[in-house]
């Protein structure tokens, strides 16, 4: 089962950045809070992987139906689909530390509940699905804020190294957790594994409880929850690079979910393995992922994101086809090593695309939307391939998924990840904000207009360039946008856009990035007036 925490870490690029921005890739560990949280997270993730093995194996013991086994993956993925976006919004508008602490307490209670039910013999397929859903809900709550707090734990120049270390920790836990879980499951039973997972959560909760953050000062009041959700949605809709990432996410993970959801069935029913053998197969995936984390920086020097993504997808398809037909344990373990390598290559490539296409003010929300699409694809795929395996067999289900992944590789022709390679979403250094006007923050709606004087021969090029400006305004929070030409005064063009309130306009000005200013300067080069384009602020009357 794919770990819900692994998708947040940018392995390859971070390792590369660490060598250029930090004296040592281990430098972030000199920061006490980061070091303690890193160690606690590695331990917690080992417990999570152990728990995954025990839950999958317990479901196999209770039910031989492929759909029931696949639904464990679906139950673990569904909360990320349902709650990742709300969690991203919460990470942007509330205290991340307190929110993270709440999520750890939630996960601890769910893990303790499963331990008691397993010890007393009250575990059923339905109970496993419910607990898998609850525990994944805790992970969905913690994933966006965990990514958001990393810059607060280390120096700016050590951020790349910190992200690399987080990814390395995930892959270490992937290599250790499944094998250890299978071993403990063989000798002590599932309830012991569940109990150890519950204990592993305590370390993260303790570190978060002890961590004292500096209070932040904000010039504007925090966004309301639903308006923040809408702002995140508008941003994604107006961000072409991020939309391409989401399309490629669906094209891969909808089919890749077959390998994760049907692997336990292949291990037990087709190979006749016990929990120890199943854990070794999962450990091979983890070792492949670690190998990928080490070698991908070199590959990225020779392959652009699209080529690397296609290569990894083809490798994953070969491994999935082997899972359908190869029935030799060690040979199949080699293919599972390929699964881990290609899996981490795809994850880091897509995550890099999502990271570079999201501005800081909306990063948690944008990445939460990416997680929503990721786990939505995993959830839908798991249910689909489990149903297909129930009716036509495991080999047929995996073969169809392999064919689908090969077809999904053609998405590279329509949705490219290397679009706008020079995109710079750092906050704008220009102090270009609305004038100080005595207007209450809640006044609105607000219509803002810019008047441009354009030469006749530049009119077409100007209107084409204004489409980029439309995306800038929409990403910043504009509800609507349009541009008009004055037919009584040739050469006069008026750009208008609508915002919900005056405070939303103030937020829009704060959200400008370097790339937004670049587009704005390009538009204003067509303006022939002696001064900057005239701006008007029109507010609805009280």
Helices and strands in order:
Layout: H1 11-21, H2 32-62, H3 66-93, H4 96-119, H5 125-153, H6 159-188, H7 190-210, H8 225-237, H9 240-270, H10 275-302, H11 305-325, H12 329-356, H13 363-392, H14 394-408, E1 446-453, H15 459-476, E2 480-485, E3 492-499, H16 502-510, H17 514-524, E4 534-539
Antiparallel strand pairs: 1-3, 1-4, 2-3
Keywords:
mainly alpha; 5% strand; 17 helices; 4-stranded antiparallel beta sheet; 542 residues
Task: Explain the overall architecture.
The chain is mostly helical and 542 residues long. Helices cover 70% and strands 5% of the residues. The chain contains 17 helices and 4 strands. It has helices at residues 11-21, 32-62, 66-93, 96-119, 125-153, 159-188, 190-210, 225-237, 240-270, 275-302, 305-325, 329-356, 363-392, 394-408, 459-476, 502-510, 514-524; strands spanning 446-453, 480-485, 492-499, 534-539. Strands 2-3-1-4 form a 4-stranded antiparallel β-sheet. Helix 3 (66-93) runs parallel beside helix 5 and helix 4 packs antiparallel against helix 7.
């Amino acid at each position: 089962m794919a770990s819900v925490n692994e998708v947040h870490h940018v392995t390859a690029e971070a390792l590369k950045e660490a060598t250029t921005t930090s004296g040592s890739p281990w430098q972030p560990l000199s920061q006490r809070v980061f070091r303690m949280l890193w160690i606690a997270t590695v331990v917690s993730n080992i417990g999570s992987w152990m728990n995954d093995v025990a839950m999958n194996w317990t479901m196999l013991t209770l039910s031989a139906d492929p759909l029931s086994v696949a639904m464990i993956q679906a139950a673990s993925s569904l909360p990320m689909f349902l709650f990742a976006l709300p969690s991203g919004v919460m990470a942007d508008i509330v205290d991340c530390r307190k929110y993270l602490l709440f999520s750890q307490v939630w996960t601890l209670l769910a893990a303790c509940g499963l331990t008691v039910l397993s010890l007393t013999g009250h575990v059923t397929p339905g109970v496993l699905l419910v607990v898998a859903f609850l525990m994944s809900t805790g992970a969905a709550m913690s994933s966006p804020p965990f990514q958001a707090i990393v810059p607060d734990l280390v120096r700016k120049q050590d951020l790349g190294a910190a992200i690399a270390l987080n990814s390395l920790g995930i892959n270490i836990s992937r290599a250790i957790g499944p094998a250890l879980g299978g071993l403990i499951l063989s000798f002590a039973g599932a309830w012991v594994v569940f109990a150890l997972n519950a204990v592993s959560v305590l370390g993260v909760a303790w570190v978060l409880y002890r961590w004292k953050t500096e209070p932040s000062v904000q010039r504007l009041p925090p966004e309301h929850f639903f308006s923040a959700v809408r702002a995140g949605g508008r941003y994604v809709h107006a961000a072409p690079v991020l939309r391409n990432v989401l399309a490629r996410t669906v094209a891969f993970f909808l089919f890749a979910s077959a390998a994760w959801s049907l692997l336990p069935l292949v291990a037990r029913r087709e190979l006749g393995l016990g929990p120890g053998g199943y854990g070794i197969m999962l450990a091979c995936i983890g070792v492949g992922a670690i190998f990928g984390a080490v070698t991908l920086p070199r590959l990225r020097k020779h392959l652009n994101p699209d080529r690397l993504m296609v290569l990894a997808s083809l490798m994953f398809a070969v491994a999935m086809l082997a899972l359908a037909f190869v029935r030799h344990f060690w040979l199949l373990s080699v293919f599972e090593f390929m699964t881990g390598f290609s899996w981490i290559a795809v994850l880091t490539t897509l995550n890099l695309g999502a990271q570079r296409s999201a501005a800081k003010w909306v990063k948690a929300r944008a990445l939460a939307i990416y997680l929503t699409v990721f786990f939505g694809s995993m959830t839908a795929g798991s249910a689909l391939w489990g149903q297909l395996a129930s009716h036509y067999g495991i080999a047929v289900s995996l073969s169809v998924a392999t064919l689908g992944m090969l077809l999904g590789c053609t998405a590279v022709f329509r949705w490219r990840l290397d679009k706008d390679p020079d995109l710079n979403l750092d906050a704008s250094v220009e102090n270009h904000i609305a004038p100080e006007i005595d207007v209450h923050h809640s006044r609105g709606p607000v219509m803002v207009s810019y008047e441009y004087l354009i030469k006749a021969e530049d009119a077409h090029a100007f209107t084409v360039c204004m489409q980029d400006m439309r995306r800038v305004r929409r990403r910043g929070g504009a509800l609507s946008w349009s541009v008009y030409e004055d037919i009584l005064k040739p050469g006069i063009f008026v750009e208008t856009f609508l915002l919900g309130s005056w405070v939303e306009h103030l937020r829009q000005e704060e959200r400008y990035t370097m790339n937004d200013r670049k587009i704005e300067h390009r538009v204003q080069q067509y303006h022939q007036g002696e001064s900057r384009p005239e701006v008007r602020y029109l507010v609805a009357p009280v």
